[in-house]
Specification:
Elements: E1 7-11, H1 16-27, E2 31-36, H2 39-53, E3 57-61, H3 69-79, E4 84-89, H4 104-132, E5 135-140, H5 153-173, E6 178-183, H6 192-196, H7 199-203, H8 213-225, E7 230-231, H9 235-244, H10 249-259
Parallel strand pairs: 1-2, 1-4, 2-3, 4-5, 5-6, 6-7
Helix pairs in contact: 1-2, 1-8, 3-4, 4-5
Bound molecules: NADP nicotinamide-adenine-dinucleotide phosphate (NAP).
NADP nicotinamide-adenine-dinucleotide phosphate (NAP) binds next to helix 1 and helix 6.
């Protein structure tokens, strides 16, 4: 699917991987609908993309922890006469707090942001995609889905859900011309570890573990257009994912406890 006259919806476009996706898709000629909470960031990016690539770029300032947001985004797209051909379900965060220590409201917000909103947006873009007989959905999972660390436990479970749900959806929708991919990055330079409060620990990790968001996006988008249901970008992450997943659960627990750099 070529970008010209097609529209991509990118959530979490104000930073990191989402902003890199927006730039990548604008360069391919996609019109864009960008969503996040920070309006100035979105306005600045939209200005840059329309100027540099001559594409249409609409922004919607919204909080995806609000259960009403996914429906509002789809209504907004309809008002602007934008048919969503590509959905990049990217917005997300992790907190370095154990399940028992976190207030319920915080956990409920994470579930809404990274499970319910992701699933609802996928569901709400489908009628249009099915009508047109084509569409791409990319959901941000994580290498965290391959190993359970003790803290950020809910995050690991959430990203596991995203991985499984993407694979199941891809199987269901492929015959209708719609491809779904779970992108599972490892450590990626972005604001993620600032939000998580683990910047100092992250800065101490060796450079070979890290990827730039542009590399993650390039590999992720290639997987999407090739119709691959799962993409683990980068050689190091492929080795980690490929080695840990087949291990017995007890060993995964041990590795999760002993190798988590953020505990
Ligand atoms: N960086 C990594 O090491 C890494 C590794 C694996 C997976 N991932 C996944 O990649 C995705 C992108 O993360 P990133 O690394 O690019 O992090 P980032 O730089 O912190 O960007 C996160 C984006 O999500 C948006 N967001 C967060 N909460 C939101 C909310 N309640 N409503 C709307 N938007 C919200 C943020 O925008 P506003 O703050 O403006 O709302 C921002 O645009 C996430 O799903 C993350 O789990 C990241």
């Amino acid at each position: 699917m070529n970008g010209s006259s097609r529209t991509a919806l990118v959530t979490g476009a104000s930073a990191g991987i989402g902003a890199a996706f927006a730039r990548h898709l604008a360069a391919e000629g996609y019109s864009l609908l960008l969503v996040a909470r920070r309006s100035e960031r979105l306005e600045e990016l939209a200005g840059e993309l329309s100027r540099d690539h001559g594409v249409r770029c609409e922004i919607m300032v919204a909080d995806l922890t609000d259960p009403k947001t996914p429906a509002s985004i789809i209504d907004f797209a309809a008002e602007k006469a934008m048919d969503i051909d590509v959905l990049i379900n990217n917005a997300g965060l992790s907190r370095n707090r154990s399940f028992a220590e976190a207030p319920w409201e915080e956990l409920a917000g994470e579930i809404q942001l990274m499970i319910t909103a992701v699933t609802e947006l996928a569901h709400r873009v489908l009628p249009g995609m099915r009508e047109r007989g084509r569409g791409y959905i990319l959901n941000l999972s994580s290498i965290a889905a391959f190993v359970p660390p003790p803290k950020s436990l809910l995050y690991t479970a959430i990203k596991h859900y995203v991985l499984d749900m993407s694979q199941a959806l891809d199987m269901e929708l492929k015959p209708q011309g719609i491809h779904v991919t779970a992108l599972c990055p490892g450590f990626t330079y972005s604001e993620f570890h600032d939000v998580m409060g683990t910047r100092d620990e992250a800065n101490r990790l060796p450079g070979f573990l890290w990827q730039r968001p542009e590399e993650v996006v390039r590999e992720g988008w290639n997987a999407v257009v090739k119709g691959k249901p799962v993409c683990v970008p980068g050689a190091v992450n492929k080795i980690i994912g490929g080695t840990v997943r087949p291990l017995p659960v007890r060993l995964q627990y041990y590795l999760g406890r002993s190798m988590n750099p953020f505990q």
